[in-house]
């Protein structure tokens, strides 16, 4: 397999200028829209020796697929965003132009959504309503159309298998004085079985609702959502779990409840997030991931914030309609 070249500011500037000219937006200037021999201002949006995302002026972002598999997902993402956009109340990026930045490697120049991230701004009560609208809209996207675009269908995860893995990881965290493993005892094996995903509930799932993918304004409104290349057709509790890690368990459950989800999917999403947070923190401490410890530690704290819904103990009476 041919290794992808390392993008530099000069190569990115030339590529951005060419894409802007192809789109009719001009080729340079700080805003990315005025003609300039030097081309637009560019800077990496992420740290690393070969960043895959670059700010282009003040109005655009250039995304470079690092390999062919990512190229397939990014091409699909452009079509998926057009399918999703009419159903959700938040903004999605629009592609200004696209092409290849290296042989077989896709790139897209997208509009830049105004606002910070969910890691920079706290989501307000009105922002939770925005998230509820997002979850509602995803449920309304026609699943068959999404699958026609190539969005894969993914089976629900086994909460019992995840619980066992998290319990083992919690033991390692206890040795590092990072987590009390007794907290996982709240999720008993029978409860894990009762919280299994119900048949016929598959919807379009964003599957990557991290704080970095939420565009949040200073007043706490959720203005946009990024990162649609990971979308699948599957368990809606996965997006509830993602929100629990990103904005906290109480806010995630409130948003899901506003979206019409009952106790069962909310509790399932909560425990998916809690088990995932324990596993991710354990991985970070053993050096098996590049995520720095402060990030998984913060996600664990958000996922384990207490919620009133935990008082629901009769899962059999939970709302199974969603």
What can you see in these coordinates?
This protein has 322 residues and is of the alpha+beta class. The protein has ten helices and ten strands. It has helices at 9-23, 68-84, 125-140, 143-148, 159-175, 189-194, 237-247, 249-258, 263-285, 294-303; strands spanning 42-44, 53-56, 60-64, 95-102, 105-111, 116-117, 203-205, 214-216, 222-225, 232-234. The strands form three sheets. Strands 1-2-3-5-4 form a five-stranded antiparallel β-sheet, with helices on both faces. It is globular, with a radius of gyration of 21 Å. The termini are far apart.
* SS-derived structural category: alpha+beta
Structure summary, number of beta strands? 10
Average pLDDT confidence is: 90
**Element pattern in H and E:** HEEEHEEEHHHHEEEEHHHH
* Basic shape: globular
Task: Write out key terms for the chains shown.
alpha+beta, 13% strand, three-stranded antiparallel beta sheet, globular, five-stranded antiparallel beta sheet, 322 residues
């Amino acid at each position: 397999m041919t290794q992808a070249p390392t993008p530099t500011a000069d190569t990115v500037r030339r590529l951005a200028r060419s894409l802007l000219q192809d789109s009719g937006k001009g080729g340079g200037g700080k805003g990315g829209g005025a003609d300039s021999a030097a081309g637009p201002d560019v800077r990496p949006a992420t740290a690393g020796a070969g960043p895959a995302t670059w700010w282009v002026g003040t109005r655009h972002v250039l995304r470079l697929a690092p390999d062919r598999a990512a190229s397939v997902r990014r091409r699909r993402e452009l079509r998926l965003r057009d399918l999703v956009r009419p159903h959700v109340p938040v903004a999605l990026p629009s592609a200004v132009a696209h092409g290849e930045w290296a042989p077989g490697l896709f790139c897209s120049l997208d509009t830049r959504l105004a606002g910070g991230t969910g890691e920079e701004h706290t989501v307000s009560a009105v922002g939770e309503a925005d998230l509820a609208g997002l979850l509602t809209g995803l449920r309304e996207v026609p699943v068959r159309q999404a699958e026609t675009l190539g969005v894969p269908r993914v089976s629900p995860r086994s909460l019992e298998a995840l619980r066992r893995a998290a319990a083992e990881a919690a033991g390692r965290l206890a040795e590092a004085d990072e987590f009390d493993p007794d907290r996982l005892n709240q999720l008993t094996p029978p409860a894990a079985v009762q919280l299994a995903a119900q048949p016929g509930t598959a919807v379009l799932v964003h599957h990557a609702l991290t704080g970095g993918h939420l565009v949040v304004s200073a007043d706490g409104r959720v203005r946009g959502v990024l990162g649609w290349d990971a979308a699948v057709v599957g368990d809606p509790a996965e997006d509830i779990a993602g929100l629990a890690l990103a904005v906290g368990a109480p806010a995630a459950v409130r948003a899901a409840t506003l979206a019409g989800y009952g106790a069962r999917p909310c509790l399932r999403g909560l425990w998916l997030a809690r088990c995932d947070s324990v596993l991710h923190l354990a991985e970070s401490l053993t050096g098996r991931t590049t995520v720095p410890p402060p990030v998984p530690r913060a996600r664990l704290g958000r996922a384990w914030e207490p919620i009133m819904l935990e008082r629901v103990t009769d899962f059999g009476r939970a709302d199974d309609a969603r």
